[in-house]
């Protein structure tokens, strides 16, 4: 028997699926697995920006600053969303940009991945390449970002918890909500 980890989903998506949410919530890891189950390509906006600019995100922030990064991020997301259905993991701040969010709302199904503060602190501690967490106490920064950004993330079409446990449990929760959303048009 094919293990459930790799068993494809019977769901057919007709629009890109865009994952939004804070740093460390699992957009990249969960997104990659979701795409594989849906048998569609996976893209990570942060990786695409790094490829286009030929530098790491942290270097981009240092060289050009955050407003230029947000502009590049919007362009990269616009290019990706004009292609066929796929799963796209966005950078943690992408959905905060009004133009980027309007684009995502128009062209894709957006999914807010949620986790509590403790888990975000634990997961982001595994990698220290996130420029916004470099200057100060990561817990305090994440707590403030969570407060500030949650009302905007809540504008996504769906919200799914990405809590402790196997990644695939989160993937399966997304697939279930997507199936209902596609059938009914909306299901928060
Ligand atoms: N559902 C999950 N269960 C357990 N661990 C997870 C889960 N999702 C992600 N992780 C772990 O948390 C870490 C951060 O995940 P990931 O890099 O996918 O987050 P991200 O949302 O893409 O962050 P960023 O916005 O900084 O790119 C990884 O080490 C990953 O393995
Ligand atoms: O939350 C944010 O604003 C960011 C998250 C990362 O994915 C990167 O896009 C960048 O470090 C900014
Ligand atoms: Mg990521």
Automatic annotation (TrEMBL):
One of its GO terms (biological process) is aromatic amino acid family biosynthetic process. One of its GO terms (cellular component) is cytosol. ATP binds at residues 24-29, 130. Mg(2+) binds at residue 28. Keywords: Amino-acid biosynthesis, Aromatic amino acid biosynthesis, ATP-binding, Cytoplasm, Kinase, Magnesium, Metal-binding, Nucleotide-binding, Transferase. It comes from the Bacteria. It catalyses: shikimate + ATP = 3-phosphoshikimate + ADP + H(+). It is an enzyme of class 2 (transferase). Pfam families: SKI. InterPro entries: P-loop_NTPase (IPR027417), Shikimate/glucono_kinase (IPR031322), Shikimate_kinase/TSH1 (IPR000623), Shikimate_kinase_CS (IPR023000). This is Shikimate kinase. The lineage of its organism: Bacteria, Pseudomonadati, Pseudomonadota, Alphaproteobacteria, Parvularculales.
